[in-house]
Design brief:
This protein is of the alpha+beta class. The chain contains two helices and four strands; from the N terminus they run βαβαββ. Strands 1-2-4-3 form a four-stranded mixed beta sheet, with helices on one face. It starts with 6 loop residues before the first strand and ends with a strand. The model has no long low-confidence stretch (mean pLDDT 95).
């Protein structure tokens, strides 16, 4: 994972299950300006598929995603607002 992004906001969604991480991400990204980057941290096992689909559907850009091998696994996403 590359961390050379200028992150505008970080959203901690650890412990929440679908659909809450996506709902909260949509609310948070709405507060950002076009081009700004939101970092989302989640533990929902379905998060990688959910965020990929959400970004595709909304037109926002999923810059990258990574998995930290912790317990529980932690997923990190960098999403750029369209």
């Amino acid at each position: 994972m590359t961390e050379d992004f200028s992150i505008s906001q970080t959203l901690d969604q650890k412990g929440l299950l679908c659909p809450l991480p996506i709902i909260n991400t949509a609310k948070e990204i709405a507060k950002l300006s076009s081009g700004q980057i939101l970092k989302v941290v989640a533990t929902d096992p379905g998060a990688p598929i959910d965020f990929e689909g959400w970004a595709h559907t909304t037109g926002n850009i999923l810059l990258d995603s990574a998995v930290e091998d912790t317990s529980p696994k932690t997923f990190i996403f960098h999403i750029q607002k369209k």
